């Protein structure tokens, strides 16, 4: 029953988080409900022992943390890292296009999108709008159309006889969603302003200055399979890990170990931004918690980061794509991701710690190593490890269809990972400091 309640909350979070802005907004609401206090980066921070806090940057990245002690140099931090963004189609600044009698949207491809999966889907639009009020004040607000308002129709096989032999999609010419017939006039700014007033009726007069809007699939997340073995949803990479990390942090909030959940934006495009893992956000927060340089280094060396990002499960239709001895199965436990070229930050000590914690919780552990004749992806793990020097492990839940508009993961794996992460936060000593 606990697993069922967990999964229903997960599905709700996924459904209500069509963009990184909405994901962070959802996480903020949960944290506030659980008694966490919001901090603002521009303000002076007063951090108290026994406190629970969170801070956001760009409204698309969030760090939540607990402070059962302020002696971070002797306790270190238990850190869990993920990312809020997913590959998608984003509107270009001048997005309105009229072609062959249809209103369409010009889009930019964000991240490594599996483009063909976006064809023939009921698409909606969500994101952030920046406005200027009649008073002269500039503000930003989130919008979400929720209803399907666009579609990218496929080309009939009669006009593309070789389609089933494999075909490529031109992102500039062939991925423009159709909004409707061009028989009537359409002014995109007016459409967006109408949605702003619908969702924020108290704003009064306002002018749209700019926007960051993404298309998304309106089909709701669901449990599928004869025995509901799978979770099928958009944005499992990586909102699945964000939800699991948040659940673990809340479950372990009575721990005596200081803990942080770090969910950053822009991982799918390299993480180099003010709010990405390759930016200064995490280090800025940690240095405000431990401003003494020597104490900061001591704290980092008593800390550990678990970077949680989805892993490639063994696909029965494409089993040759895996190293046979490192082929994770869905619903068989989280996956330790290993790469000798440091595309993942795992080492023997951090892997050993995770294996032991999982065993204590009664969960299996799997391992993924990419085939030696294939390129390896990466995560926020090596970026954070290289940025602040924290011992790190890369883990993930086995997934099918990564970067598809709709991905597939196990309905048992996420709950198990949350239990292991909570034990990670609660464990006072992870590794002996003695060396031979």
Automatic annotation (TrEMBL):
<dbReference type="InterPro" id="IPR001948">
    <property type="entry name" value="Peptidase_M18"/>
</dbReference>
<keyword id="KW-0479">Metal-binding</keyword>
<keyword id="KW-0378">Hydrolase</keyword>
<comment type="similarity">
    <text>Belongs to the peptidase M18 family.</text>
</comment>
<keyword id="KW-0482">Metalloprotease</keyword>
<dbReference type="GO" id="GO:0004177">
    <property type="term" value="F:aminopeptidase activity"/>
</dbReference>
<protein>
    <recommendedName>
        <fullName>M18 family aminopeptidase</fullName>
        <ecNumber>3.4.11.-</ecNumber>
    </recommendedName>
</protein>
<dbReference type="Pfam" id="PF02127">
    <property type="entry name" value="Peptidase_M18"/>
</dbReference>
<keyword id="KW-0031">Aminopeptidase</keyword>
<keyword id="KW-0645">Protease</keyword>
<dbReference type="InterPro" id="IPR023358">
    <property type="entry name" value="Peptidase_M18_dom2"/>
</dbReference>
<keyword id="KW-0862">Zinc</keyword>
